[in-house]
Amino acid sequence: EEYTSALRLVGQSRTLRSSAWGVGLLIALALGAALLIVHWLTRRLTRLAEEMDAFRESDFSQTPGLTCPAGPPGDEIDTLGLTFRDMSRRIVEQIGRLREVDRLRRELVANVSHDLRTPMASIHGYLETLLLKDSALAPGDRRRYLEVALKHSEGLRTMVSELFDLAKLEAREVEVRFEPFSLCELGQDVLQRFELPATDKGVDLHRELSSSLPMVTADIRLIERVLVNLIDNAVRHTSEGGRVSLVCHLDGEAVLVQVTDTGPGIPALELSRIFERFYQARGTGADAEEGAGLGLAIAKRILELHDSVLSVRSVPGEGTSFVFTLRIAEPAQPRELPQASVLTEKAAG
Prior knowledge:
Elements: H1 2-57, H2 76-115, H3 117-132, H4 139-170, E1 179-181, H5 183-193, H6 195-201, E2 204-209, E3 216-218, H7 220-236, E4 243-251, E5 254-261, H8 295-305, E6 311-315, E7 319-327, H9 339-348
Parallel strand pairs: 2-4
Antiparallel strand pairs: 1-3, 4-5, 5-7, 6-7
C-alpha cells in the first residue's frame, strides 16, 4: 500500500508539474500574442510619430515620406496620417513661398541700393553745381544742367517703377485677367507709339499683321507691356538705316508673335543672361545704355504667367529675334433663348 501511495503521489506530482508547465506555456503564448497584437495595432502610430519628429527636426522644410493606402481611409489612424501628410505638404509649400518672397525682397533692396546710386549721384552733382555756381553759369549751361538732371530723374523713376513691377511678377502677386482680343489691333497700336522715335533715329518699322488672325486669350494689358518692352528694346539696339519688324501668324492652335531687329546681334555666350535683371549685353547698340536692363526680364515673367515661353535667336552682325506664342481664344457659344421666350415669340407672330 505504501508503494502504491508513493506511485500515486509521484504521478500526481508529474501531473501537477505538467499542468504547471502547460499553464506557464499558455500564459507565455498569450503574452506573446498580446504583444504582437499591440505592436500590430501601434506600429502605424509609431511610424506616424517618427515622421512627425523627422518633420520637426528638418525645420519643417522636408515633406515626410509617409505612405498612405490608396482610396478612402480605412480607420482613424489612416485619417490621421492623411491629414498630417496634407498639412505637412501645405506647410512646406507656404514656408517655401515665404522664403522666396523674402529672397526677392532682399534682392530688390540690394538692386535698389546698388543700381540707383549712379543716377542719384549724377542728379546730386548737377544740382549742387547749379547751386554753387548759379551766378557764374551762362543761361545755356544752366538749362543744359537742368535738362541732364531731369533726364536722370526720369530714368530713375522708370527704373524704380520697373523694379517694383518685376518684384510683383516674380512673387506672382499680379492678377492675370484672361480675355479674348485682337492681337493685330494691339500690335498696330503699339507700333504707332514708336513711329516718331523710330523716324527720328532713321529706323524702319515693318509689320506683318493680318486682320484674319483669330483672337487670342490673354491679359491684354500685360501683353501690351510685353510688346512695348520688346519693340522698345529693338529700336534702341538698331542703328540708323535698320529695320524693326513685328510679325504675327497662325501656328497650330496658337498665334506666334515675332519681334525682329537688324541690330548688331547678341554674342552666343551672353544669350543665356539677357533675361537677368539689369543685365545688358555689350556692344549691342549706341542707345543700349538708355535702358535699365529690366524690360526683357519683365516680358519673360509676364509670358510665364500665360504659360508661354519667350525665346530668342540672334546672329552677331545680323540681328536678333524674340518669339512667343499665345493661345487662340475659344469661339463664343451661341446662347439659346429660354423656352418661355420662344413660346412668347411664336405667340406674337
